[in-house]
Amino acid sequence: MTKIFFRALLAGLAFLVLLVALNRFDKRVAPAAFGDGDLPPSSLEAANGAFWLLFLGEPESAGLDIERKVPEYRDLLGRLERVERLTWQVAPRSRSLGGRYWQMISDIPFPQPPDRDWPGFLRAERDHLSRLRVELPILLRRYERMTRCETVADFGYRVEWDRPYALQSFVLATGRLRAALAVLDAEDGRWAHAAEELLTAFRFGERLAGAAQSAFFYNLGRALVDTALEALAGLLSLPGCPPEVAGSLLAGLPPLSPAQFSARAALVGEFLWASERIERGDRWLQSEIALREIVPGRRGDQARMALNVLLARELGTGSYLRLREAAFELFLMKNRTRGYFRDGLRRLLALDASPPFRWGASGEGAPSFKGLNLWWLWNPSGKLYYEGLDPFRQRRTVERKYLTRAFYDLVRMAAALRLPGGGAKTYGADAPGKWPEGLSPEGAREARDPFTGRPYGWDPARGLLWSAGLDGKNDRGDPERDLVLSVR
């Protein structure tokens, strides 16, 4: 029995040595495909309007004096630099983001597709919105100041946001409140003011997305754009909307260029962060990300924490840290792992560069290592790290970009159809999908659905515009399947 155990032990040690040796044969270093030159500039200067994203939720006692808080924000962002920190070194903010603001604005029933019943929404929520306008003047003025900042820049792709979803949710809730109040102003007769407020908010979101070096900044900017477009569509849907307002919206929303709302820089920033982590980052965080693949989910979070606490107590914190980092390093091929991320990024950039109806197999073939098997013995740390970050999840970011572009076109078309002679009854009858003559800066311009490559759908009898949406199937304006906009 002893001999069998001894032989099994020797066999296990021999297998381990062979496995370690196998994982020493890495690829050669590939030329750098992307770098900081592929990104828009970042900024920590006080003039950066992005600091207002952090200032929005400060207590009312801080007023509008953001200059006093900028040094504190710089220090916070420095401590959140992703390349130099362990995940547990920076404690979350001690107070809930936005304080009482969040409790007051989180449940506003902002009109949702497909109905987008803005007149009904304003009837039901008029008193509530009016009360919030009186009770939250500082918050609303901060949001107005933010959207009017001349400079907007990302803080840098190396910054890992502390509680990013909480910040995003709070900023978007504030944006929805301000948009709803603008549409309420329009219903009360302040049409030009409301249109200008919403166009200003739209431009801020567009600039924020265009300045993004990270998926967080990009998705927040694009979501603010979506909020402004939804409210602009609501403004057009109100009874008595003046033709002059439709004209100002059409002028303020020029035809999209191919590069508008591109997610390229944000995708490259995410790739650069992952690559730097492979080369310079702490192995503790990498092994934590990898461990999520082995023990996933919310219960997995508890299990990982319990395991870390137990082993750190038994082995000593320093010894346990060194053991985990060494184990991860033994089975990591840096160049091969960077290649996984690089291949995934190239496929994502191919999707970002062309509309979905042309994608075909462009996004296929991205590295994927789902399901453990013997092949995992070749660079297991790298495979687990790649899957833990799952960079190809950013495909959803690209898909949402094209939904935003499609809805932008629909809002422009709705504005054009509300102009005198806009052809709301005849549009599409003779030349389906073509802008009414003389209503766009280029005259008659064909508007193409990015999901089909064909003209957008229009049914004058129902007063309905639509895009086929993500599945690329034209369901004749079915609100459950298509992206629809009513033109009443």
Explain what this protein looks like in three dimensions.
The chain has about 500 residues and is mainly α. The protein has three domains: about 50-255, no CATH class; about 265-390, no CATH class; about 415-488, no CATH class. It is about 55% helix and about 0% strand. A three-stranded antiparallel β-sheet has the order 1-2-3, with helices on one face. The longest helix is centred in the middle third of the chain and has 24 residues, at about 165-185. The chain is globular and about 95 Å long. The termini are far apart. Mean pLDDT is about 80; it is low at about 85-95 and about 425-445.
The ordered string of helix (H) and strand (E) elements is HHHHHHHHHHHHHHHHHEEE
Number of E-type strands:
3
Helix content: 40-55%
- Mass-distribution shape: globular
State the secondary-structure class: mainly alpha
Q: Please state the average pLDDT score.
A: 81
Q: Indicate the proportion of strand residues.
A: under 5%
Low-confidence stretches: 83-96, 424-445
How many structural domains in the coordinates?
Answer: 3
- Round the Cα radius of gyration to an integer and report it: 26 Å
What is the rounded distance between the termini? 85 Å
The total of helices stands at 17
Main sheet, how many strands, which sense, barrel? 3 strands, antiparallel
